[in-house]
Write a structure and sequence with these properties.
Two copies of one chain form a homodimer. Chain A has a single domain, classed as Tetracycline Repressor, domain 2, CATH 1.10.357.10. Chain A is built from ten helices and no strands. Chain A is globular and about 60 Å long. At the A-B interface, helix 7, helix 8, helix 9 and helix 10 of A face helix 7, helix 8, helix 9 and helix 10 of B. Chain A binds a DNA duplex through helix 1 and helix 3.
Chain lengths: ~180, ~180
Amino acid sequence: MRYPAKETAAKHERIVKEASRLFRERGFENVSVGEVMKAAGLTHGAFYAHFGSKEELETVAIAYGQELSAGRARSHGAAKKGRQAYADRYLSPRHRDNPGDGCTMAALGQEVARSAPEIRATFERGLEEILAAHGGDRKEAIFRTAAVLGGVVLARAVQNPRFSNEILESVRQKLD
Amino acid sequence: MRYPAKETAAKHERIVKEASRLFRERGFENVSVGEVMKAAGLTHGAFYAHFGSKEELETVAIAYGQELSAGRARSHGAAKKGRQAYADRYLSPRHRDNPGDGCTMAALGQEVARSAPEIRATFERGLEEILAAHGGDRKEAIFRTAAVLGGVVLARAVQNPRFSNEILESVRQKLD
DNA sequence: TGTACATCAGTGAACGCGCGTTCACTGATGTAC
DNA sequence: TGTACATCAGTGAACGCGCGTTCACTGATGTAC
């Protein structure tokens, strides 16, 4: 049956949101279209009324996730205080332990590198926006983004919690 | 039929080597057991004479890849010259463009973070060995490792070659 | 050193499963008049 | 404002495919005597 246009738009948004969260938590490959639709409160068949393919959803989910990151970057500033606060949040145990709510690049960067051109282009546009949001010296913004990203990737991959905390702490200190 | 023990050991090594390369190139999920065996010059059925499961192969491949990285780290030193040369090589277009021959952490870190405890423990042991190989101040070694790793992840994910080079260059400069 | 035989790496067909995607169908919505 | 009907988001069964894994079988190797 046909549904109110408003509800359809809300469902569409829910699909993107849940996909973004699930992809960041478990990666593109470990999340099925069915799981995303279930998380959005729908059945899998309806998926193709919203997106042409899983790959298209991945693209939209990356755009959405990068937008969230750009917003967070904007809320801090280019001043030293803002930069430090940003790095402290990024390198917190909370961010490490909740990839589903965290930075898309820290969760999916490597998978994006192996993905289709459109996905990489979307990722890239997001990164440019994030760098612009950070403001200040561009080289500095790139460097700090790379450093905190690498720190979180290592802290997440490692098994020993003490070692993991040590990694976060080391990168935080060196960036201050 | 039964095969000479020496040949069997050589084949075993070939499986690990090819698996490590393929996994770094395309990720665990995008490489099938059959592909690995084919690359090693065998058929897929023989796989289970060498490993109990694909996950076991992933673990061994991570250990192998981390060992390669530790060797490369050892060949440079803790002195300033060695550190710089290491970062320059790590952040080179060549390393960016050849993940199959490159750092395991830069290729598979995020996937390892979502993997079984044994895989993460193996990754961790490798990282400890790499840090020890770098020598010097441990915090500094962790920081530099995170920064170059993040730089390569971003440089690989991005689409525009100029932007990608700019990322490598920015991280290189800031680490000098 | 020679003989008998158990071992086991390797082959290729087969299995069950989950996945992305398709499709016939439904029926309230939204539009044309 | 009321009526007629085309639209289309959503359902759930079905599809084909590739995957990890299993299995019966092979036959040279390596070992026990």
